[in-house]
Amino acid sequence: MSTGLVRTIAVAIDCSPHSKASLEAAAEMAERLQADLVGIFVEDINLLRIAGLPFAEEIRRYSSSTGKLDEAQLERLLRHQAREARELLQQAADAKTLRHTFRVLRGMVPEKVMSAAPEADILVLGRSGRSPSCRKGLGSTARTALYEGKGTVLLMRPGFTGASGPLLVLYDGSGGSRTALVTALALAGPESTIHLIIVDLDPEAEARCRQEADALTGGTGLAVEYHHLPLADGKQLSRYIRMIDAGLLVLSDRMELPEKTLHDLVDDIDYPVLVVR
Amino acid sequence: MPRPEKLAPGQLYNHCDHGQFVFETTAELDGTTEIAGQKRALDAIRFGMGIRHDGFNLFALGPSGTGKQSAVLHSLSGLAPGAPCPDDWCYVYNFEKPRHPRALRLPPGRACELVSDMEHLVEALFSVMPAAFSSEEYQSREKEINESFQERQDTVIEELEEDARKRDIALIRTPGGFAFAPVKKGEVIKPDDFMHLKQEERDRIEAEMVRLKDALQSIMAQIPKLQRERIEKLKELNRDVAGFALKPLVTELRSKYETLPGVLSHLDAIENDTIGNFDQFLEKESSPQELFMGGATSTPGARGRFFVRYRVNVMIDNGHSKGAPVVLEDKPSCQNLVGDIEHTSQMGTLVTDFTLIKPGALHRANGGYLVLDARRLLFEPFAWEALKKAIRTRQIRIESLGQLFSMVSTVSLEPEPIPLQVKVILLGERMLYYLLSTYDPDFAELFKVAADFEDEMERNHDNHLAYARMIGSIAVREKLHHFDRSAVARVVEHGSRLAGDATKLTTHLQGICDLVHEADYHASEAGRNRVTAVDVQAAVEAQVHRATRIQERVREAMMRGTILIDTASERTGQVNGLAVYSLGDRNFGRPSRITARVRMGKGEVIDIEREVEMGGPIHSKGVLILSGFLGARYAPEIPLSLSATLVFEQSYGGVEGDSASSAELYALLSAISGVPIRQWLAVTGSVNQFGEVQAIGGVNEKIEGFFDLCRERGLDGRHGVLIPATNVQNLMLRDDIVRAVEEGMFSVWPVAHIDQGLELLTGVPAGEQAPDGSWPPGSINAMIVDRLGAMAKKQQEFASDHEDEKESKR
Fold first, then answer.
1. Are residues A66 and A60 in contact, defined by beta-carbon separation less than 8 angstroms?
2. Do B174 and A66 count as a contact with CB atoms less than 8 A apart?
3. Distance between CA B431 and CA B428 in Å, rounded?
4. Which of B238, B263, B267 lies closest to B251, judged by CA?
5. DSSP state letters, A106-133
6. DSSP category for residue B776
7. b vs e for A208-245, b when ≥16 Cβ sit within 10 Å of the residue's Cβ?
């Protein structure tokens, strides 16, 4: 995404708390940017396959008793979930008068989510979905989107506003980080504050980066705060970012930072993350 | 026996000499009143109020209008201000048993203080609690607890997931829970592919899955426990934070009320409750004031009702009281005595809470005196029993009557009883006192002191002055004209007339008070600025005139001859008796013709009134006495051979009392002797078996009744009335009668014995009985003896002729 224009926002909905937060953030962005909303629900093929296995058994969540997984029942439940997801999208879109479409696909969830809306400029996902443990790290779909995705991805989590709140942008003067900043400026709400974190290890980079960034942010009217964090370790970065305690973290995967650092950071951080490509 | 002298005019009326008063008008008096003539009752009241033991409650008994209430209140006004002021009482929420609100006792004036302190506490909590719970420390501690729980849960599941992954098995979330499935390259093996695996491989996978499933099941069984632990930790955190926020507020209140253990324990309960319900103070639907004041009465929401629990319902506030309370409850219904639990309608159902408990008269009088009218109390359903129960148990227990009789079947309250220490004073008529004493076994236990109010008091200078003072105080209080001393004297005389005794004064002060008002009216009409004797006289006459319609109709009937009353000739066996009629609070007298006829018989005197059951028992008794007198005096040794009939002529309403027995005797003796009776005289008085004439009631009205008739027909100097000599002291006759007597146109004779009466009525001497029992010839008694002797002889002859006839027939 190099133009900074956002026409379509896709959002994966599986009715989990994370996906509800994703839907809210997506709807809020779509309203502000006058973009279309595409809702994606994927019927997990893995589930249907389990039902086909001879010994497949379900361990029930609230009684820990077991029961046979019935394929027909599973189909019904998935249809019900899809309907629920559609209603959620409908409600969110109606409240903000958005154009929207809803797509139901069947297959492996990560792949289908990635391929469901190729036209979308941003894909919004929950950091973790309906995986067994609500672990802190990324869910399988989010992981796939981070490692294998080609488009811009917003990984949401409940309890945060999307782009309308304060934004944290990782900047190192690279082309990728510039794109990230431009995107952040495009997405930022009128009240947002931009926390620009300069991560270039060069001690003299700060002034240079500031200059570049000022040129980009000048004229937007947004408040910009500069932080210089010459760190290369993802976990350390995440700790500092937590101390700044802003909102959405915006970064690019085409920055000078090592890929592992970026992945560690995204994996570890408690905030929603927008990965710009 | 000497013939009695006519009464002198001075004996007919006991004048009150206004010269004895040193004042000119009652305005000169100091306006203070004393309860005169009730020493016995006042002593009893003083005793009853002074004694502090249980059961020494007071019953002030006496006719209405005798000033019982004034006397009691007057006595209490001297006692109560010096007594200690009782404590305040209030009801508060019982946090352990909400159905049983707690009663709190506080020193005078402190209940209202507690109310405002509680209001401030709740108001403060609405700012303190949200501040504490939105603090960063709280938020981070809460997050930490939640995350540590999540982490523990995640770790065990992740370990299991890892274990499974190593064996190419994935843990997958299903819509209803979890499932394990064999995977290949991240995808669940298709069923067909699985079936193509080797049997051993399939068995291995299956066994692994069983093991993993068991492990997951045991993990999941642990989750509720972890969840509980998390909730407990969160609760503990909440308690700590809420407790810390609340502490300074409660500590301040504690030190303020440190001497009151009841309030302290209530504050403890409030502290616990607010800590447990801290979340109620976090959401702010409406202002704390509204929520606090709302409750069942106005806010329908459950949240509004919640805050009612911190309110204080002040039952008794003695903050501004001085001394012990004196409560006069005019409507002593059960609810007004012991209090009530009101309900309010909410969404169609009746609900209540402790703020709807209403105090009763017993609450208000607690520590002091409660004055009640006995008749009104007994007329109110359940009130008497409720009062007795409260006095007996020495506590006020509020019970809703609706609840008690299942008329209201909603949840109600049982408030904690309040200890009771009260003197109850009942005011009532004597009949009520004696009925209660006889039929209610509790009564004697609970009302040990009786203050018996006199109907009348001695007529002496002190009491004359007491009347004057009372008139003066009424004039001041009611803004009437003052009475001059002649008017006071006339009121005193009227007081004597009301008492029916020339030597007494009535204590029925209501009647006197009415007369004072009426006399004031007449003075105003006449344009005088002070009330004189003329005005009092006019008021008395107007009172009489207003009440004399029936009296005048009766007299008119006599004038027209419809009712036969002879006041001019002499007739044998006929006498004018005098009867008194009572209509409401007015009495009037009228003459009645009594006749007697005799014939030969077996010595019986037949009272026709009794035969037709129109005579009361006392009247019958009087007539039977006549037979006794007749037989013993005139025929002690010969059979009494007459049969006499006695009748009250033209009486249609029944006769009671023995005041006509002397008249009946005169009629009978006239009938036997054949000597006519002077009809211009009338007779009253009862008689005993020895012929002594005894006192009767209503003597003034009786004389006036006969006088009015005679005057209308024209007084000729012969007219008069024979009254028992012992009734002379009761004479307070009207002024016109006294004048007629002075002019010699009317006479009143005091008669002590029947012989005196006979002489006056017949003009024939009665004679003195000789020791041998004989009477002087020519005397009326001799005539009677002769006639009876002749009758006995005739009867004997008749009996022997009859025997001979029978013999010859045989």
1. yes
2. no
3. 8
4. B267
5. EE-HHHHHHHH-TT-SEEEEESS-S-SS
6. -
7. ebbebbeebbeeeebebeebbbebeebeebbeebeeee
Domains located in chain A, CATH noted:
8-46+75-156 (3.40.50.620), 167-276 (3.40.50.620)
**pLDDT tens digit string along B379-400?**
999 999 999 999 999 999 998 7
- Domain B38-86+321-453, architecture per CATH: 3-Layer(aba) Sandwich (3.40)
Q: Which of B659, B661, B670, B686 is catalytic?
A: B659
Class of domain B15-33+456-546: mainly alpha
Q: Which residues of B96-117 are buried (b: 16+ CB within 10 A; e: fewer)?
A: eeeeebbbbbbebebbbbbbeb
Exposed, middle or buried by CB within 10 Å (0-12, 13-18, 19+), for B232? exposed
Is B209's Cβ below 8 Å from some Cβ in A? yes
Asked if A55 reaches chain B (Cβ–Cβ under 8 Å), the answer is yes
Which of B148, B161, B171, B173 is best to mutate for the A interface (most A CBs within 10 A)? Answer: B173
Q: What is the ipTM of this complex?
A: 0.78
User: Residue B37 above 80 pLDDT?
Assistant: no
Tokens encoding B199: 């049997």
Could you say which of A49, A62, A81 has the minimum Cβ distance to residue B191?
A: A49
> Choosing among A76, A133, A157, which should be mutated to test the B contact, i.e. which has the most B CBs within 10 A?
A133
Q: How far apart, in Å, do the first and last CA atoms of chain A sit?
A: 6
B136 shares contact with chain A (CB less than 8 Å): no
Determine the Cα–Cα distance for residues A1 and A277; give it in Å rounded to an integer: 6
Separation of alpha carbons B4 and B9, rounded Å: 15
Q: Catalytic site residue B659?
A: yes
| CB distance B481 to B529 below 8 Å | yes
Would you tell me which residues 83-102 of chain B have a C-beta closer than 8 angstroms to some C-beta of chain A? Answer: none
Out of B176, B180, B190, whose CB is closest to A61? B176
Chain B: closest CA distance from residue A85 (Å):
14
Residue B220 contacts A, CB cutoff 8 Å: yes
CA distance to partner chain A, nearest, from residue B248 (Å) = 33
Q: At what angle do helices B199-256 and B136-166 cross, to 10 degrees?
A: 170
Find the CB nearest B174 among A47, A64, A133. A47
User: Are the Cβ atoms of A134 and B220 closer than 8 angstroms?
Assistant: no
d(CA A90, CA B153): 34
User: pLDDT 10s digit of each residue in chain A, 277 long?
Assistant: 434 468 899 999 987 878 888 898 899 888 888 899 999 999 888 888 888 888 778 888 777 788 887 888 888 888 998 999 999 999 999 999 999 999 999 988 888 888 888 888 899 988 876 555 545 567 778 888 888 888 889 888 877 776 677 888 888 888 888 888 888 888 887 778 888 888 877 777 778 888 887 887 777 778 888 888 776 677 778 888 887 777 888 888 888 888 888 888 888 887 888 888 8
- B182 shares contact with chain A (CB less than 8 Å): yes
pTM for the complete prediction? 0.70
Of A45, A61, A136, the CB nearest to B177: A61
Tell me what pLDDT residue B701 has: 94
Q: How confident is the model at residue B299 (pLDDT cuts 50, 70, 90)?
A: very low
Q: From 3.30.1490.190, 3.30.565.60, 3.30.230.10, 3.20.20.100, which CATH number describes the B563-793 domain?
A: 3.30.230.10
Q: Where in chain B are the domains?
A: 15-33+456-546, 38-86+321-453, 135-188+203-319, 563-793
Instruction: For A51, name the nearest residue in chain B, comparing CA atoms only.
Output: B191
CB-CB neighbors (< 8 A) of A67 in chain B: 176
Contact B596, B668 (CB under 8 A): yes
E strand or H helix at B327, and its extent? Answer: strand B326-329
